[in-house]
Amino acid sequence: MPPPNTPVAHTPRSLSVDFTESLPFHNITVPPPNTPSSALDSPHHNRQYRSRAPQVVEEAVETDSSEIDESQHIDYRALTYADTVNENLICPICKVAFVDPVDTECEHTFCKECIAHALEHNDVCPFDRNPLPQPATLTRSHKIVINQLDSLLVECSSCRAHVPRSMLRNHLDRYCKEALVDCPDKGCLQQVRRKLVDQGCLHNNIACPDCEGIHQEVAMSKHREESCEERQRQCDHCGTNILRCKQTQHEEECVELIVPCIWVQYGCEHQCKRGELNLHKLECNFRLMGPMADILRKEIQTLQSDVRYLTDKEQLQERRIKFLEGGQRESHRHSNYEEWSSQALTPLADSAQVEPLSESTNEYLLNLLGDQERRISQLSSALTELEGKQTMMLFNETVPIKNQIAELQSNQQMTSMHIRWFMNWRKEDQLRLQQQQRRFGGGGGCAGGSGGASESEVDGGGSSSELATPRRSPDSLTRGLVTKL
Amino acid sequence: MAAKRITREYAEISESPPSGINVSLDNDNVHKWNVVMAGPEGSPYAGGTFHLSLTLPPEYPFKAPVLSFKTRIYHPNVTNDEKGSMCIGILKSESWKPSSKILAVLLAVQDLLREPVPDDALEAQIADKFKNDRPGFERDAKDAVKRWAK
């Protein structure tokens, strides 16, 4: 089986319609018969459809087979219809209800696949032998035809249920309990009926408990019921042949099995075959007592459960009262807290006050525990609050500091920029001074001034010591400034 | 597709066979049918039983089926020999339509027995006799039925 998106190779033909069942028309965008109606709601589709302009069925170049699983290809011509199909919906060529109906120019309707086959043999309408142009102009049949076809009830080949034809694909893909689906075990390549999917992979071999033959687990129940040679045995009681795998079921209804009277729990000791039990029922001493006792028993059971419920409720309420009493005392004591102003002493005070009052130490301890828990939670909440405050404060403090640092940094950068510019300016100034000195002192003409300037720029730093000093001093000054900053 | 349609048509005809026509498959081959046709009442062939063989090409229904009389018959439109080839409008390749059914073909044969078409004859002598000497034709046809189709 090719992967779902494998493009289908085409042999060019005068009219090549792809015969894959649910392949849409390339141009007319016919959805496959199983397309849910919601898919027809796209504006694109509606527009194309309402215009009903004749459109040529072009060569289907691209195949949209992403949804088509070829293993589950439905043969729409092999379907069994629930009722006799109206003969107006029967294709004159394949003689079954239309599959993807299309209309010819002479207004005859055929299945897309049938008309394509017919046109391979002869370029005339298969119904009235009118010549059809090449390539044939086929339009998708009117919606009313499609709707009638979609609503035809067909029998599901797996579960025999009747479903509308357009729903068959959906039914098989999702709901049909008998349809074959991939085994839930990813490593197992076999298929299993959908109803057995919940039970995991059943494709391991097990031995039949009756005949010891080896069969797959999935087929075992069928084997035991239908083909196992040891599948039948005689019932020990009634002698009829029964299936071994159905023995327990049979024992529940075997008429020859000896069973006790239905009133056995009230003291009837009679035992007889199940078939004769009805006779005994009529004369059993317990026939009047039994039903009465039954009613009483039920009554007692309900009363017992009521009592149990009420006891539980009462205990709960008692505990609640205790708790509330404890709480009251505590609120009394709260006024004393301030006097003592020491929390460490409270447990002691608690014990001193509550002990004589509480009826059971357990209650007291529970109260105490609750109290402590409450206090702990209070403390923890206070702690978190405090933590929050702390973070906020820290944040508030750090933000202006950060801003200041950034400001200082930018300031510093600006200053160093100024200094650099100043130094450059000084350097040029010095050079200009040097040139002027040379011009006046060396007696050189104006010519070569620019050349001389470049020369002095190159060797000026090293040769004239008197110029070097003033130029270096601002340099070192800047460095000092930078380090300070 | 061919096999499916043929099976369907076969089931249809076997379930409710038209009067005087009986079909069965030759060796369970859906492409080869044995047809037994009774001579229609009111025709010179009445009382005769004619065996026909119907061959459906693999291209059916796009190609017409081939029908021949296995029982010899004295009829202007059927060759008066062992082959029993016949000429019938509906089966001619230029007039065959995929929408035609086998049932229609068989009924057309019955009609042909009731009313021969001398203008489209295979046996010119018989056609002449049919046209010019109707009682003589009927007598000969009845004789032929007694000889071959009893």
Largest interface by residue count? A-B, 18 and 14 residues
What is the CATH class name of chain B?
Alpha Beta
CATH topology of chain B: Ubiquitin Conjugating Enzyme
Topology order of chain B in helix (H) and strand (E) letters: HEEEEHHH
Q: For the largest beta sheet of chain B, what order do the strands appear in spatially?
A: 1-2-3-4
Annotation, overall tally of beta strands of chain B: 4
Count of runs of 4 or more consecutive helical residues of chain A: 12
Mean pLDDT of chain A: 74
Fraction of residues in H or I helices of chain A: 40-55%
Low-confidence stretches of chain A: 1-71, 341-356, 443-472
InterPro entries (chain A): Znf_RING, Znf_RING/FYVE/PHD, Znf_RING_CS, Znf_TRAF
GO molecular function (chain A): zinc ion binding
Domain TRAF-type (chain A): 223-277
Pfam families (chain A): zf-C3HC4_2 (PF13923), zf-TRAF (PF02176)
Structural notes for this entry:
The complex is a heterodimer of chains A (485) and B (150). With 485 residues, chain A is mainly alpha-helical. Chain A has twelve helices and 14 strands. A three-stranded antiparallel β-sheet of chain A has the order 1-5-6, with no helix packed on it. In chain A, strands 3-2-4 form a three-stranded antiparallel β-sheet. In chain A, helix 10 packs antiparallel against helix 12. The longest helix of chain A is centred in the C-terminal third of the chain and has 82 residues. Chain A is flat, with a radius of gyration of 50 Å. The N terminus of chain A is likely disordered. Chain B has 150 residues and is of the alpha+beta class. Chain B has four helices and four strands. Chain B has a four-stranded antiparallel β-sheet. In chain B, a hairpin with a 2-residue loop joins strand 1 and strand 2. In chain B, helix 3 packs across helix 4. The radius of gyration of chain B is 15 Å and the shape is globular. Chain B starts with a helix and ends with a helix. The mean pLDDT of chain B is 87. At the A-B interface, helix 2 of A face helix 1 of B.
